[in-house]
Amino acid sequence: MLFPIARAFFLVLPILVACSGKVDVDHTSTSTGGGGQGGSGGAGGAGGSGDCPAELPVAGAPCDVPENQPCSYGECCPQMFTCEAGSWVETLVACEAPLPCPASPPLDGAACAGPCGQTSPCTYACEAGGASFTVTCGDDNLWHSDMPTLCQGAMTCGDMLQCLEGYICVTKQAFVATYECALDPCGPEPLSCACAESLCGDSFACIQASGKNVLCECPNCK
């Protein structure tokens, strides 16, 4: 079984930019999935561009950059300032939380949401009491594992996940295919749609179930 151990974007109306969700203003978030335990999205350092000062301005302090020129400080969830009537004004932003660590270990080289959009690193164990390994979402938007081989008894699930011993791969085919690992609901009996139908959820039907794979299709998505 899986034993998890243990940055997403920001909104500046009307501008949409990536961020880590680590702010103290108008915070909004969406929740997707659960998963292993991990760190927070990248923070990024302060810095200006063009006529913007290199150091983070102080709201209300005098400024002499062009009126309403945005100045951004930080990489993932930057603080935004504009110079209005000769004084710095901080623009209110709302940052969403980064995606949580996947419930099952992502494969080495699988796509991720980037350092700002994905909680990382994420740490997992192949088995209870076993040695842990860590996967990190890199600047190349790919997962990088310090143990690139599969855990013993694990299997690949699509091109994204590895399902550990006792888990099966559930593929949901609609307009695109999604993958997830789930506990085998049929054991010790052979896997079949009769006992695995519930894994497909609403709007999907179990088309095939054998070995360690369940295929679910959306009849109304064709």
TrEMBL record:
Domain of life: Bacteria
Keywords from the UniProt entry: Signal
UniProt signal peptide: 1-20
Protein name from the UniProt record: Uncharacterized protein
Organism: Polyangium mundeleinium
